[in-house]
Amino acid sequence: MKFFIDTADIEEIRKLAETGLVDGVTTNPSLILKSGGDIIETTREICSIIDGPVSAEVTATEYDEMVKEGHKLAEIADNVAIKVPLTIDGIRACKTFSDEGLMVNVTLCFSPAQAILAAKAGAAFISPFVGRLDDIGHDGMGLIEDIGDIYTNYDFDTEILVASVRHIPHLLDAARLGADVVTAPPNVFWQMFKHPLTDKGLDAFLADWAKTGQSII
Ligand code: E4P
């Protein structure tokens, strides 16, 4: 399972990258707004920190403009994945980019039928939004399962990138289903390290160690 971080916060990305466990980053226009940075400069900086795919999203809604924006984003670095929305123009742009050998992440996927379109258009990643589906009382993880079954039936190469992850159970369910990638906000990633019994056990070991009066080095 690959871990992507869902943020455009450079300092958070730097800290998480120090763990050596970050495989990529996803951003979107809302995350760019939150970061307060310029999309081109922010994407360039993230690409200099992270070797894996860094998704940067087009904001045009019409094909010709999307293609121009996508080319500009792809010029930033070789590891940029052009993010396009799952619309007719977005899927058209995805096909154009993938035919050119560019990496594409198709975002805002909420149905298996949409996921089929992205795979047929050669997307490197499909981003189904599990949290937003759960928010409206639908079964976000059921969508991941359906897409997984369908992609296996046809040997599609498109990787399932579980997005809109809100908490650890989402991440674990995605792992149980064998999803290729999970993109999670920094707080979910940090929570994975934590368990109260780890903290308690370490405190006890350190207290006993102090009583031995020894030192390893
Ligand atoms: C994924 O690429 C999106 O940026 C993200 O996961 C959306 O998550 P949200 O529903 O928490 O905004």
Give me some keywords for this one.
217 residues; alpha/beta; TIM Barrel; 8-stranded parallel beta barrel; 8 strands; 17% strand; binds erythose-4-phosphate
Annotate the secondary structure layout.
Blueprint: E1 2-6, H1 10-17, E2 24-26, H2 29-35, H3 39-49, E3 54-57, H4 63-74, E4 80-85, H5 88-99, E5 104-109, H6 112-120, E6 125-128, H7 130-135, H8 140-154, E7 159-162, H9 168-176, E8 181-184, H10 186-191, H11 196-212
Parallel strand pairs: 1-2, 1-8, 2-3, 3-4, 4-5, 5-6, 6-7, 7-8
Helix pairs in contact: 1-3, 4-5, 6-8
The chain binds erythose-4-phosphate (E4P).
Strand order of the largest sheet: 1-2-3-4-5-6-7-8
Form type:
globular
Question: What low-confidence regions span 5 or more consecutive residues with pLDDT below 50?
Answer: none
Total of helices: 11
Order of H and E elements: EHEHHEHEHEHEHHEHEHH
The portion of residues assigned to helices is: 40-55%
Supply the number of structural domains: 1
List of distinct ligands in this structure: erythose-4-phosphate
Count the E strands. 8
Strand content: 15-25%
Largest sheet at a glance?
8 strands, parallel, barrel
Mean pLDDT: 98
Just name the CATH architecture. Answer: Alpha-Beta Barrel
Polypeptide structure, described:
Helices cover 52% and strands 17% of the residues. The two termini are 37 Å apart. Strand 4, helix 5 and strand 5 form a beta-alpha-beta unit. Strands 1-2-3-4-5-6-7-8 form an 8-stranded parallel beta barrel, surrounded by 6 helices. Helix 4 packs across helix 5 (88-99). It has one domain (2-212): Alpha-Beta Barrel (TIM Barrel). With 217 residues, the chain is an alpha/beta fold. It is built from 11 helices and 8 strands. Bound molecules: erythose-4-phosphate. Erythose-4-phosphate is lined by residues 6, 26, 28, 107, 127, 129, 131-132, 163-164, 183. Erythose-4-phosphate (E4P) binds next to helix 7.
